[in-house]
Hints:
With about 450 residues, the protein is mostly beta strands. The protein folds into two domains: about 1-70; about 95-125 and about 180-450, Beta Barrel (Porin), CATH 2.40.160. About 15% of the residues lie in helices and about 45% in strands. Helix 1 runs antiparallel to helix 2. The radius of gyration is 36 Å and the shape is elongated.
Amino acid sequence: MKIIIGSVLCAGLYSTSGFAQSPLTIEQRFALLEQRLQDAEKRADKAESEIATLKQVPTTENENKIISVEQKPTPKLALNNNSELKFYGDVEFNLDGASRTGSLTSVKTSANKNWAPGDKERWDINGRILLGVDGIQHSSNGQYAGFTVQPLADMNGKMNLDDAAFFFGQQQDWLVKVGRFEAYDMFPLNQDTFIEYSGNTANDLYSDGYGYIYMMKEARGRSNSGGNLLFSKTLDNWYMEVNTLVEDGSSLYVDQRYHGTELDNQKNVVYVRPVIAWRSGDYSMAAAMETNLINNAYGYKDAAGTWHDQSGRTGYGLTMSWNTLKNNPQEGVVVNLNTAYMNAEDEKDFSAGINALWHRVELGYIYAHNKISDFNISGLNSECGNECAILAPGNYDIHTIHTSWQLPNIMDMPNFNIYLGAYASWLNSTAQEEGDDQPRYGARLRFKYLF
């Protein structure tokens, strides 16, 4: 206090000595010094009050105040209230070997979408890295809205996209979802490493000249030429959904060819796929259908100029599961029983499959029956050659066995696993003299890393 008052006095005396143009009387100078002294005392009292207040605040809070003034913290990602944001990834690379590149069925046994059929053995390294971002925001009344986006980088140097969707709804009640995604799986294949590539998108499921394993996936979604709109409802043990897929319907067929004819797309198809599922404890079952509502969406004209509509397709499916793995991770079992039927133009397809998983070992079998009533062999792609399994009208029975073994926790990391898989397929036909095609088989080593 003495230092402050002394400083003020010195400053006042010094200031008064500078009034050269209008000198002050002694009384005026003493009055000015007295006013300045009073101002200095007020400032000193205010400073003492602030120091006392700081002494009453906890030390950590004082330190935070000092830091906020002297050193600003590193900026962090800020979200809206009640919002969540998740970043994650999925690395998947395969080492494949197969007896032939030519296939008996349209089932894709390679992750390389650019791989073309041929008559040579196949040795291949393929895979991709998925980077995902999910965001969701909750309201106080249990409602929510969010998004998901999953870009893919494959080994061929191309960027693709898995899911990209926006959704909103009521927790444990109803949901609306729009974008690119897959609806309910009506033909689950358990821990499989090969057959899963058939039907992961709504495109290129049917390859002309090969058998078709119908799996209720034509209207499931994740299309490269359209989008989904899904409504779902949960009620106790029941779950119901209706998925709508609008797309270029001819993208279902590889090279837009069906039964040896080139398809002409007139307008987009509108698939509707209702599903009703029930779950209780370890048991669950679901029934569904999918159908195109648009007539004359695509087809072809014959030599006489007559239009043939090929877009009429209706399928039905049923799946049942027994899953004790959630309650017993060590000794649990997962068993799936699937069946599906497709009624299409000039073709009827039936599929049935069973698979089981126990102690990380999976074994499954799929039977498919194709009844084809019309086929134009002259219109087959020249690349098909002798490798095509279906070259004429008739009945075709396709058998596929697949297996997989998971090796978990590689290098003591629970998110790094290795899968060993294998498959074998063969075909019986009433349209060929020999009746049987040479079996196809292959094996795969998969590296799976999640982060």
